[in-house]
Each structure stands twice: as C-alpha cells, then as structure tokens.
Write a structure and sequence with these properties.
elongated; disordered N terminus
C-alpha cells in the first residue's frame, strides 16, 4: 500500500512540476510513521495553506481563486485546532507554529510572482499533493493512535482540496 501511495504521489508531483518553481517540486516524505515527523510537517503545511491564502485574498485577481483562498483559510484553521486537540489527547506537547524551510520558500515565491493566480494555484496543488501523501501514510501507519485517527479523518477533506485546486489550476486560463 505504501509503495502505491508513493508512486501515485510521485506521478502527481511530476504533473505539476512544470508550473512550479524548482524549489517547490520537492516531494513530501513518503513513509511517515512517527509523530515526531508528522506533527511538525502537518503544522507547517497548515501554516503554508493559511499564509499563502491570506496573500491570495490580497493579490489574486480571479474570483474563483479568491473563493478557494477563503475556503483554505477556514478549513486549515479548523484543521489546526483539531490537530492541536489530537496532540493534547496524545499527551504530546503542542508545537509552536512554524513552517519548514521548503514551505517558507513556497510562500516567498508567491511574493514575487508575476502571475500570482497561477503561482498560487500551483503552490496549492503541490502542497495538497504533499498533504495527501503525508496524511495517508501516517493515517495508515502512525505510531500515536489519536494522531493517526486525526490523519484518517482529515484525509478526505485534503483530497477534496487537491481535486478542487487541480480543477482551478487546469480548468481556466490564467
């Protein structure tokens, strides 16, 4: 099962690599089984979604992109609160909000994007591909049951976000 997830995620990453900057095309960890890796990566992913979407509310021209950004802020703020609750139930310390360097670079690339809408949607596709892989892997094999349950419960929403982002990115002229 993990090999299948890795292969699908890799194929999807190649599909958007052409519309992304080189630093953003690095894949997420493929087989995440420890809370020590899952929690900070998931926290960073949520922050990436929220921060880039706040930027989109300021810079995006396309109303569909702006609607998507509002949904990302709402959904990822909720996911952040739910994850913090799962971390507390697990008896682990809630980590401070921080983005990993790759996610910081993705946000920074948006600040200078000449075609913001296309760049933002490219970041959204990549980030959600990474999240689907991360949450699927940890949900199936995670070492902390409440966090693995959170990952499984959150996965369908992330998959929906990915499909929506792919539809916007591929279904309109930017």
């Amino acid at each position: 099962m993990n090999l299948k997830i890795a292969l699908v995620a890799g194929a999807m990453a190649f599909g958007v690599a052409g519309c992304m900057t080189p630093m953003a095309s690095a894949p997420a960890p493929m087989a995440v089984t420890t809370a020590a890796v899952f929690v900070p990566t998931a926290v960073s992913s949520n922050l990436l979604e929220i921060e880039s979407s706040r930027m989109a509310l300021q810079r995006a021209r396309n109303p569909e992109v702006r609607r998507f950004a509002r949904q990302m802020i709402r959904d990822h703020n909720l996911a952040t609160r739910r994850m913090a609750a799962a971390v507390r139930r697990s008896g682990l310390p809630v980590p401070p909000p921080a983005m990993i360097p790759r996610h910081q670079q993705m946000v920074a690339s948006l600040q200078t994007a000449s075609d913001f809408d296309a760049a933002y949607m490219g970041v959204q596709v990549m980030a959600h591909q990474e999240s689907v892989t991360l949450f699927s892997s940890y949900g199936s094999n995670g070492d902390v049951p409440p966090l693995a349950a959170f990952a499984r419960q959150t996965l369908p929403n992330l998959q929906m976000h990915l499909q929506h982002a792919q539809g916007i990115a591929g279904g309109r002229a930017m």
